[in-house]
Specification:
The chain is an alpha+beta fold and 383 residues long. The chain is 54% helix and 10% strand. α2 packs across α4 and α7 runs antiparallel to α8.
Length: 383
């Protein structure tokens, strides 16, 4: 009788046969340092099995990542625009261009940023609050902001219309699958599937209506942005525009009053209705209120000793360019602090990485109070 002998499986040394630089997925460096792994690519296990591994969290060698497009903050955009104006107008500003010439050759934005910041801090060029250059820069930034807003709204309209149409088409296609008047057969094996199918039709139609409404609201916003009739407080020339508007409204009111006086004497002329004068009066009152608030903001900004304050865990910034007062915390603040900030009109801006509100007299006052009370900010107390 022949004895059957068991053959032992041959052991191989686990290794990477063909290395690769391509990797997929995400990884955390702190966890990866604790685990030893092999290079990405074609591998062989201890049992001799050949497999491929490209995941980041299964490899030690740093792979080639896709290039990440860094989103610039508003302050970085302003600095970039400032540098662009220097390069464009180098003939007019030869001395300023020569100052930045060695740095402009470099590709890194951080070097440019440092150079511009130090240059502004040293006050080697007139870019203070009374400078003409700053006013021109502010106006350019505002115009760019308006152009970007119009482009963003146009893209939003196209996207909303596309999503609305695709949702409607999906709902229509699903509804065609069920014959007209087909009831749900209770107790039948098709009951649940039929109910889910009807829910899908209903949900898709709801999405279509939702995106259609969104497209119409964006369309109205685009119309008002293109008309450019609204005077925003962010506009550097807002005070001048409001003053000219006030003059026009007051002149209009006097003209109507004079016309009504003549119409009472002459029966052939028609008088303006009384609601015209009341509406004009209300508009004049609101414009005067806005002018007062902008003047108060101007005085408050002039009275400030510095535009930045900092203490442990918090930084207060009065950004005149952005027309925002910003509170920058070291980390995420507690829920009590967050609710207190919201109650005082501050909102989180992911773009600027700060809690901010519009830069006006009230905003400056609220920011000062919160800065003084930090870190003992309580939700019950309204500042």
């Amino acid at each position: 009788m022949v004895k059957k002998t068991k053959t032992k499986a041959k052991k191989f040394k686990a290794r990477t046969l063909k290395k690769s630089t391509r990797q997929t997925g995400k990884t955390t460096m702190s966890k990866d340092k604790q685990i030893k792994a092999k290079a990405p690519g074609k591998r062989r296990s201890e049992t001799g099995k050949i497999y491929y591994e490209y995941r980041k969290n299964r490899t030690d060698v740093k792979g080639r990542d896709a290039p990440k497009i860094k989103k610039l903050s508003d302050s970085e955009k302003r600095l970039q625009n400032f540098i662009n104006t220097i390069v464009k107008e180098k003939n007019k500003r030869e001395s300023l261009f020569n100052k930045f010439k060695p740095v402009l050759k470099k590709k890194t934005f951080t070097e440019l940023k440092k150079c511009v910041l130090t240059y502004i801090e040293d006050k080697k060029v007139k870019i203070n609050r009374n400078s003409r250059d700053k006013e021109i820069l502010k106006q350019k930034l505002w115009e760019e902001k308006q152009i970007n807003k119009i482009e963003r709204l146009k893209k939003g309209i196209v996207k909303a219309k596309f999503l609305s149409k695709s949702a409607y088409d999906s709902s229509h296609r699903l509804s065609k699958m069920i014959p007209f008047g087909q009831p749900i057969l209770i107790g039948h094996h098709s009951q649940r599937r039929h109910e889910r199918h009807i829910d899908k039709i209903h949900n898709d139609m709801g999405k279509a209506i939702k995106f259609s409404n969104k497209a119409s609201t964006l369309q109205s916003r685009l119309k008002s942005a293109l008309a450019n009739n609204i005077i925003s407080s962010d506009d550097p020339k807002a005070l001048e525009k409001l003053q000219s508007k006030l003059k026009f409204l007051e002149q209009r009111r006097t003209d109507i009053k004079e016309h009504n006086k003549l119409a009472r004497k002459d029966k052939n002329l028609e008088t303006f209705p009384t609601h015209k004068l009341t509406n004009l009066g209300q508009n004049i009152k609101s414009v005067k209120g806005r002018i007062i608030s902008l003047e108060q903001k101007k005085k408050a900004m002039e009275s400030l000793e510095s535009k930045e304050k900092s203490k442990k865990g918090l930084k207060l910034v009065y950004d005149d360019m952005d027309n925002r007062v910003k509170l920058i915390f070291d980390g995420k603040p507690d829920s009590e602090i967050r609710s207190a900030l919201k109650r005082n009109g501050f909102r989180w801006s992911p773009k600027n990485n700060a809690w901010q509100r519009q830069l006006n007299a009230t905003g400056i006052h609220k920011a000062r109070l919160i800065y003084a009370a930090f870190p003992n900010i309580k939700n019950e107390y309204y500042y």
